Amino acid sequence: MNLSFPFELAWPTSGYVALYLVTLLMHALFMSYVVGGALAVAFVRLHGVRENGPVTRTFIDWLPFALSAAITAGVAPLLFVQILYQREFYTANLLSFHRWMSILPVLIGAFYLLYLLKARPHARRLSAAVASAVAFSVIFVAWSWVENHMLSLNPDVWVKQYESGAMAYRDPAVFLRLAFWVALALPTACWLVTLQMRFGASGTEPEEALFASRKLARVALGFLVVAAALAPFVLRGTLSLSPVDETHLDGADLPYFALAAVGLLFTLGGWLRLQHLPRLSGLCVVLGSLGLALTWWGVLCARELIRLARLDLDTLTQRHAELATSSGLVVFLVFAVLALLVTAWIFRRVARSLRQSK
Amino acid sequence: MNDPASFPVNDFGPAMKGLVIGGLGIFHVFLAQFAIGGGMLMAYFQWLAMHGREPKARLVLDSYFRWLVLVSFVTGAITGVAMWFTSIQISPATIGVMVSEFHWIWATEWLFFWVEVLAGYAFYRYGKRLDDRTRLALLVTYSIAGWGSLFWINGILSWQLTPGEWVATHDLWAGFFNATFWPSLVYRTIACGVIAGLVMAVIVNTMGELDREDRRRLVHHSARFMLPVVAMPLVGAWFLGAFPADSREWVMGASVAMTLFLNLTIGASALIGGYVVLGLWKQRLFINGATATLLLALAFGATAGGEFVREGARKPYTIREVLYSNSIRPEDVARLRVEGCTSGDPYPLRDAATYPSEQLVKGALVFRNQCAICHTMSGVNALEHLMGSWTIDQQRLNVAKLQWTKGFMPPFAGTPEELEALVQLVRWESADRPGAWEASTDREALEQIRRWLDEAGTGPASAGGGR
Known about the structure:
The structure holds two protein chains of two kinds.
Chain A (H helix, E strand, L loop, with lengths): L12 H34 L7 H31 L1 H16 L1 H17 L4 H29 L5 H7 L7 H27 L7 H32 L5 H7 L4 H22 L6 H29 L2 H11 L5 H29 L1
Chain B lengths: L16 H34 L6 H34 L1 H35 L5 H30 L4 H4 L2 H5 L4 H24 L7 H15 L5 H11 L2 H10 L1 H27 L6 H24 L4 E3 L3 E2 L8 H7 L18 H14 L11 H5 L4 H9 L1 H4 L10 H15 L12 H14 L11
Antiparallel strand pairs in B: 1-2
Helix pairs in contact in B: 1-2, 1-4, 1-7, 1-12, 2-3, 3-4, 4-7, 7-8, 7-9, 7-12, 8-11, 10-11, 11-12, 14-18, 16-18, 18-19
């Protein structure tokens, strides 16, 4: 089973793809939290639940930060996608025009609504409306990204799409893929909020965290099954791979679906172990988190392999080799190490100061 | 590199594309400079609080930081992403070259942005529960990271105007530390401080828990922070002196609009600087919310004027000597004069049926590929208004010798037939788009256009070859 992607690609394409995938994974985790959190709060509110339970409370408290982190983390993959697939990405942007650009005011609106939600967490009708609007907004943004990806990989339709002046790319596969990503985002958000609650975020007591996480487990497991069922069909089947594409792909995505499945089993293990423990053990955290990371890594690698199979890899690698003649990599690496150190230092320093203040 | 013609071109209606990206850019720059200066000012106020020099510093600091997060972290961050998206919409070729050349610089800038957001949020969320030293450490980290992101992006933006030796060597650092890098960085750093100080003057006036004396004292501290504004005239002159000679000519009188905007910037900056130094610092005046807001609005005007001048001074390029403002490379002009600028465009016109002749369809394609990035047909900066009153020979001559007609225009990059098609399109539009329009097939006119194009040459006006 070959799991060496993207390092089997020629340098520097392999480097660019690796950085794209790592930063996309970071973005995906935060974005999953936002999608799952917004949907969860909207669901709870629309069902008329009066009190804020620990899950709702934690989501409301942390969603503004999560959206900010998702956007900040999203800047890096946005940069690398421009390096890797400039022509495809730019063309898809241009073809969707106002529809694509509208994700920006929608995101700004969602951001302020999240702060409003946080400022008025107990206003039931207001928070129901606000949470629904936020959930709608983030789904709209997710839909736009899925559509952009699909459009970028179908150059045959570009001229027709432009000529029609249509701002939406009408392909039923877009909705299938959107359903898959949302199905994967929900259990991810469930796991992340469970970790937060177990570490006492937003004033959660250990007993209510345990009770809430057992309820979350059922939701998470249900959506994990849906995501697992959709994954191979959606990622592979919705792009109409030609025989040539299939030859290029040569089944290279299959080990990554297997890796995602292994990750899924780990995550299941984490959830199940959580059910039978009075508190969150280290093993439980490792199992669930590692499983989630493996699942996302597997899915993202498979998606990228399928994308590369549809494009002219020789042209791409030649272009990337030209780009790599531009210097600056060493500076980036030095500052990447520094940024990691500063990030760790901030966590440590703040945690120490908070401990002392207690 | 991508061929510009391979990208679809969108029509922004009566709005000039430059207005769209310019408006967004000014808004984003103002917010970003507020975020950077705000961090530094907060670090200064934290220091004042720690040394017992200002009893209300901590109270104001926490309130100010909430505004910083709500305005700058949210809208500032997303307008930053919006700048990328809008650049793709306006000129994919330009942003493509910038990303291709400077992707590691951009990636480094992202690392600074990451640290800035992390330190900022840590302070926002936990600041009130942290000890003073940790608070100061977070604010200093935030400030360094914020200023660092300015450092990196400033190199890329100033490179567009003065790429210098990079054009010949493609040495990234020669391009990054270009002639306008340092003056631009110092200028922007001072602007960051001034904007942050003026925002402070507005915010202290919104806080009911402060009395008039508190406000006067706090504004005085901010004024001290804004004092580097006295260096603005010198830094501005340094910046202007580093401009390429022809760009300097545009802003010093050759282009009325750019000169007006430069004067707007100088005037607004002088008013702000004078008020800060003489009123707020020297005489320790009290400033109410309305006056503070007015000064902040002036600062926005100064930012807008400065950004307009910086963007406008690059003409006829988006990246000097590399890419004309219509995304055509200087070295491609000669080829396009033979092959045509419409032959490689795979995207048909959406409204081709509304044109009564093939020649007008071709004219519309020429307009889309060469003019639409800065002009509309009948909206803002419209060809109809700029050329409609000329005689047909004037139209042909002035477009054929475009770079000599107006020095900040790029040379026409198409065949005589395409130029004639564009002229016919403008005449047809000026005549209110009649249902029938006879195609112009005057061979003599085409020969004359060819001669004029040859006389004009394929270089820009600054090359000086065609006079």
